[in-house]
Amino acid sequence: MPRRAFFVLLLIGVLALPLFHSAYLTYMAIRVIILALFALSFNLLLGYTGLLSFGQAAFYAVGGYTTGLILLHWTNELLVGVLCGALLGGLFAIGVGFFCVKRTRIYFSMLSLAFGMLIYFICYKWKGLTGGTESLGGIPRGTFLGIIDMSSLCNYYYFVLLVGLLSAYAMYRIVHSPFGLIIQGIRENENRIRFAGIMVKRNRLYMFTISGFFAGLSGGLYACLESTMFPTIADWQSSAEPIMVTLVGGIGSFLGPVAGSIIFVVIKEIVVRFTEEWLLVFGIILLALLLGFRGGVVGFFEERLNKRSLASKH
Asked: Which structural domain, as residue segments, surrounds residue 178?
């Protein structure tokens, strides 16, 4: 019951956040939601499939650039632009995954990194489409269903919150479905699943595609938030963000990437304000969190709660 009450209060606080009339606070909350969605898409691979991808930012960038180009040149409907970005992210993931899922461990990671850098160079060199180093700027937020003006940061916050909650629920249902159990079985013992007559590579490709879809969705939301897209969004450093967020929050927990996103964004913003050497300080803090909280912050507290509940039963 206390846990339910906590989540109810948290939901009320999230819904009421824009009412504080702080544009900065609303902007930071949107960033947290987008990063959490991006990290959740990554954790579908690492946490549930056992595949470490170093190229997740490629799908993020594909979704962002697609959304931006559609809203600039085709339609003013935000939902259409974001969904097209997600779909193209998923389609690109099918092509990349066809080659990547044939390998595992470090070979998979290096292949995903190679494809990620390929997208980075395409974004960097194809100036006629992406703007290159000059960026793809002036991306509008348009309208939602042709009625609600999304140029308002408050309106856009509720749109991102709705998309984020629906996406998180969809991913939760996926990982707890029979398909999700198969994927986790492949992670634990690939040979046993193969002997049971289940196509391992095909199921990995399905999950890789789903992950690319949600990464593209988060990229589209980011493009509309910042009204611009740079090629650096597709590079390996951007792919490192969901990795760090997931490790800090906890790989073994579905909510780990969400908690990790909040911690990551808040600490980064605080450190940047107080020192020019923020990268060094930020890295030390993240390292301390990783070493201090075994299994991530959420995993650490879940383990403590489980031990306490077992002790109370005895």
From this structure: 25-234
